[in-house]
UniProtKB/TrEMBL annotation:
InterPro entries: FAD/NAD-binding_dom, GSHR/TRXR-like, Pyr_nuc-diS_OxRdtase, Pyr_nucl-diS_OxRdtase_dimer, Pyr_OxRdtase_I_AS, Thioredoxin/glutathione_Rdtase. This is thioredoxin-disulfide reductase (NADPH). GO terms for biological process: cell redox homeostasis; cellular response to oxidative stress; glutathione metabolic process. Its EC number is 1.8.1.9. Residues 30-365 form the FAD/NAD(P)-binding domain. Belongs to the class-I pyridine nucleotide-disulfide oxidoreductase family. Residues 385-496 form the Pyridine nucleotide-disulphide oxidoreductase dimerisation domain. One of its GO terms (molecular function) is glutathione-disulfide reductase (NADPH) activity. Pfam families: Pyr_redox_2, Pyr_redox_dim.
Length: 512
């Protein structure tokens, strides 16, 4: 009862604050209300505030099916890029420790990994980021409201607190940046009851143990990669192909490396049911589509990484007539992030056809803020977005896959330069470099404009980021050749690439 009274008291204070702000700003409480305090929403709200707008951001985290909760900052900070990259780093360090012995480090006894220490450190870092975001909002005078938002009309948002209290805020413009959440398969008995998703894995207090990861895209392969790297028995179940949409030769190198690294891959298999045994183990029954046979094995954890669904349920889009794609559930957007309703904008993972990446959400949010205050007309360019899959052997790329370049320009319209190279750091440690590869896809005629650049290897994200600048500037193959390498690096192999696939010559780099 006392807690209820305290809640009521706080609510009254919040409410009177709104009355006050409404009175100060005239027609609307705010110039801009942003629903969703993730990568995109925070960037947009802070930018708009810096441009002199009166801004509020609503962020509310619905706990995962398993009850996992987190703070301000959205998917990337709490259950995405940040904890994922840190756990990837934990795995890379495990490999580095093994390499270290070859470099003379005396490491007595077996090297073991402790999940609880890693998870605690990662979770503490994430909490520090949650706090940092709150401080930044305060410093930039953005009002943060920990409420679940829904649309009432094109100028009005209703907020619902955790305790079920309602509030209403009005704004000249409304931005939706509510992102997405992991999906569970709907037709597999026991999937939701016994499985977890990426919303849970980074917040587990205890090691997931022997894990089955279902799915074969970014999330599945990255999670399986770091779980293997920290020493867990890990299987990936792939129903069709790995990394759909990516260059399939590169995808093959990524999964080949994972298999040599210790990840088991069940190709062309799909789970049929998950049962909890009396021992507490999870028994998974699956079908191998190549043989048609049914198999069973037990796991400590089943991680579903079967894609993400847009977070629109609570928004009331249908009532207002905001157009969504019926198949994907995502909001249909114009190039300027406008929805079908005036004054309502959306971007980030919630937007139909938008890349589901943090940097694109941030950039789109900042550009939108500038346009909303009339400071710019620049719209987000979603072409040439570089990306990296943080698997044990990282894969970075920008531009078209070889398949897509061939589709658009014809097989004879492209020239593919390629090289298999050995990172210097793999030599002394005697690591297998068979999957370290570079592929530069160019137009065959004219200036040989680069259409796509792909590489697998250590620090592929860092390397790709640099080349993405050249790509954005319209680099050609001759620009690449004119560029002087930095020796000895993996990146220099990109500017040295000279064997064409068409020639059939051995593409293995020998010597410097
Ligand atoms: P989000 O960051 O998801 O933020 C949306 C926010 O809105 C959330 O806090 C949500 O709780 C809140 N919300 C939802 N509904 C409401 C409501 N009605 N009212 C109030 N608040 C609401 N991208 C990369 O670029 N690099 C990576 O390495 C990378 N790794 C990833 C790893 C994993 C495991 C996952 C799942 C994703 C990864 N991503 C990565 C993708 C990246 O996290 C997303 O693209 C990015 O976070 C999208 O930002 P957003 O602003 O659109 O939405
Ligand atoms: P995704 O790219 O949509 O891939 C879903 C995967 O699950 C596919 O391999 C799909 O196989 C498989 N799948 C779907 N339903 C299945 C089922 N019922 N049974 C078995 N397999 C099933 O999803 P995601 O990996 O969750 O990634 C979501 C987005 O997050 C990505 O698009 C990416 O932009 C972002 N992300 C980025 C990074 C990064 O930048 N490093 C990292 C993680 C996530 P099919 O191919 O057969 O359909």
């Amino acid at each position: 009862m006392a807690a209820l009274c305290r809640g009521r008291h706080r609510w009254k204070r919040i409410h009177s604050l709104f009355v006050l702000t409404r009175n100060l700003s005239g027609k609307y409480d705010y110039d801009l209300v942003v629903i969703g305090g993730g990568s995109g929403g925070l960037a947009c709200s802070k930018e708009a505030a810096q441009l002199g707008q009166k801004v509020a951001v609503l962020d509310y985290v619905e706990p995962s099916v398993k009850g996992t909760k987190w703070g301000l900052g959205g998917t990337c900070v709490n259950v995405g890029c940040i904890p994922k990259k840190l756990m990837h780093q934990a795995a890379l360090l495990g490999t580095a420790v093994k390499d270290a012995k070859k470099f003379g480090w005396q490491i007595p006894g077996p090297v073991c990994h402790d999940w609880a220490t890693m998870a605690d450190a990662v979770q503490n870092h994430v909490r520090s980021l949650n706090w940092g975001h709150r401080v930044q909002l305060q410093d930039k005078k953005v009002k943060y409201l920990n409420v679940k938002g829904s649309l009432v009309d094109e100028h009005t948002v209703k907020g619902l607190t955790k305790a079920g209290k309602e509030m209403v805020v009005t704004a000249k413009n409304i931005v939706i940046a509510t992102g997405g959440r992991p999906k569970y398969p709907t037709n597999i008995p026991g999937a939701m009851e016994h499985g977890i998703t990426s919303d849970d894995i980074f917040w587990l207090k205890k090691s997931p143990g022997k894990t089955l990861v279902v799915g074969a895209s970014y999330v599945a392969l990255e999670c399986a990669g770091f779980l293997t790297g920290i020493g867990l028995d890990t299987t990936v179940m792939v129903r069709s192909i790995a990394l759909r949409g990516f260059d399939q030769q590169m995808a093959g190198l990524v999964t080949d490396y994972m298999e040599t690294y210790g990840t088991k891959i069940a190709w062309k298999c799909f789970p049929k049911r998950v049962d909890k045994l009396s021992s507490g183990a999870l028994q998974v029954t699956w079908i191998d589509t190549q043989t048609g046979s049914e198999y069973k094995d037990t796991y400590d954890t089943v991680l579903w990484a079967v894609g993400r669904a847009p977070e629109t349920k609570a928004l009331g889009l249908d009532k207002l007539g905001v157009q969504v794609n019926k198949e994907t559930g995502k909001i249909v957007l114009g190039a300027d992030e406008s929805t079908s309703m005036p004054n309502i904008y959306a971007f980030g993972d919630i937007g139909e056809g938008r890349p589901e990446l943090t940097p694109t959400a941030i950039k789109a949010g900042k550009l939108l803020a500038h346009r909303l205050v009339g400071q710019s007309t620049e719209i987000m360019n979603y072409d040439n977005v570089p990306t990296t899959v943080f698997t044990p052997l990282e894969y970075g790329c920008v531009g078209l896959s070889e398949e897509e370049a061939e589709k658009r320009h014809g097989k004879d319209g492209i020239e593919v330069y390629h090289a298999f190279y050995k990172p210097l750091e793999f030599t002394v440690s005697e690591r297998n470099s068979s999957q370290c590869y570079i592929k530069v896809v160019c137009e065959r005629d004219g200036g040989q404009k680069i259409l796509g650049l792909h590489l697998t290897g250590p620090n592929a994200g860092e390397v790709t980021q640099g080349f993405a600048l050249g790509f954005q500037c319209g680099a050609t193959y001759s620009h690449l050749l004119q560029t002087v390498g930095i020796h000895p690096t993996c990146a220099e192999e990109v500017v040295k690439v000279h064997i064409t696939k068409r020639s059939g010559l051995d593409a293995t780099v020998t010597g410097c």
